[in-house]
Write a structure and sequence with these properties.
The protein is 17% helix and 31% strand. It is of the alpha+beta class and 242 residues long. It has two domains: 29 residues; 205 residues, Rieske Iron-sulfur Protein. A four-stranded mixed sheet has the order 13-14-1-15, with no helix packed on it. Strands 6-3-2-16 form a four-stranded antiparallel sheet. The protein has a four-stranded antiparallel sheet with strand order 7-10-11-12, with no helix packed on it. Strand 2 and strand 3 form a beta hairpin.
Length: 242
C-alpha cells in the first residue's frame, strides 16, 4: 500500500474507533496507538530506512521519554502476521517488519521477566546478530543467530517472529513497537505498541534511577514529535554478553 492510501486508511480507522471505542475490543486491540514520532539521529536528521546498518543494535525511547526500545535491521524479511500471546492470555498479531525488505523491526527493550533493560551504565539485554548458544523451551542447548538475549536470567527472543520467546523464564514476548515507513522519503515513524506492556511496573520499580538518569521529575512524559536513535554503545557504556 502506498503512503497516501495507508494514511487515509489510518485516518478512517481512527475516526471509526473514536466514534465507537468498542471497536478496539472487537479487533482484539492489536495496536495501542501513542504519539506518532519521527525517528531521528543525534543531529536531528530523519533516519532513513536505507541507512540502518544490518546487524547493528540501535536504541530509542518510546512511547515514553524514559522507556528504551530496540531498532534493528535484520537484513531479511520477517514473518508476517505472527500470532502471539501475552502472559495474561491475550492474543495479538504482530504484522511484521517494515521498510523496502520488511526487515526493520522495533521492540520494547524491557525484558518480560525481571525488567532488565539498557541503562546508561550497562545493558544486560542486547541484540546478538551472530550465532549464540542458549537453552530452549525444552531445556536443550540450541544455537541461533539474530536473537535478543537477556543475560540477567537467560531469556531469549526472536525479533524476526514478533520477539517470541525462544528460551529462558520470560513469560511473554517483548512488546512490539509499531513502525510506519514512508516510501516517498524513507523516513521511519513509531506509532504505537502491541503485546504485553510492562511500563507501569517499570516506572514503579525504577522511578528514582530514571529520574536521576534522565534528569526529570516526569518519568512518564510521552515521547513527542521526534525520538533520537543511537547505537547501543552510545546509549549504554557497557554491554553484558553471554
Amino acid at each position: 500500500m502506498k503512503r497516501r492510501g495507508f494514511v487515509k486508511l489510518c485516518a478512517t480507522t481512527a475516526a471509526a474507533v473514536g466514534a465507537n471505542p468498542d471497536l478496539i475490543a472487537q479487533t482484539g486491540g492489536q495496536i495501542k496507538m501513542y504519539e506518532r514520532v519521527l525517528l531521528v539521529d543525534s543531529a536531528g536528521a530523519p533516519i532513513e530506512a536505507g541507512t540502518l546498518k544490518v546487524g547493528e543494535s540501535y536504541v530509542f525511547n518510546y512511547p515514553y521519554a524514559t522507556t528504551p526500545c530496540f531498532l534493528l535491521d535484520l537484513g531479511r524479511p520477517t514473518a508476517r502476521d505472527a500470532s502471539l500471546t501475552t502472559d495474561a492470555g491475550a492474543r495479538y498479531v504482530w504484522q511484521g517488519g517494515c521498510g523496502p525488505e520488511r526487515s526493520i523491526v522495533a521492540f520494547c527493550a524491557i525484558c518480560a521477566h525481571k525488567l532488565s533493560h539498557p541503562a546508561k551504565s550497562v545493558s544486560f539485554i542486547n541484540y546478538r546478530h551472530e550465532t549464540v548458544s542458549f537453552r530452549d523451551a525444552s531445556k536443550k542447548t540450541a544455537q541461533r543467530s539474530q536473537v535478543i538475549y537477556c543475560c540477567s536470567e537467560k531469556s531469549v527472543y526472536d525479533p524476526a517472529d514478533g520477539a517470541r520467546v525462544l528460551g529462558g523464564p520470560a513469560p511473554q514476548p517483548l512488546a512490539a513497537i509499531a513502525l510506519e515507513h514512508d516510501e516517498d522519503n524513507g523516513y521511519i515513524y513509531a506509532t504505537g505498541t502491541s503485546g504485553g506492556e510492562m511500563y507501569q511496573k517499570f516506572f514503579d520499580t525504577f522511578a528514582f534511577r530514571l529520574a536521576l538518569e534522565f534528569e526529570t521529575a516526569d518519568i512518564r512524559k510521552p515521547a513527542e514529535n521526534v525520538a533520537e536513535v543511537v547505537t547501543i554503545a552510545e546509549y549504554s557504556r557497557s554491554q553484558m554478553m553471554c
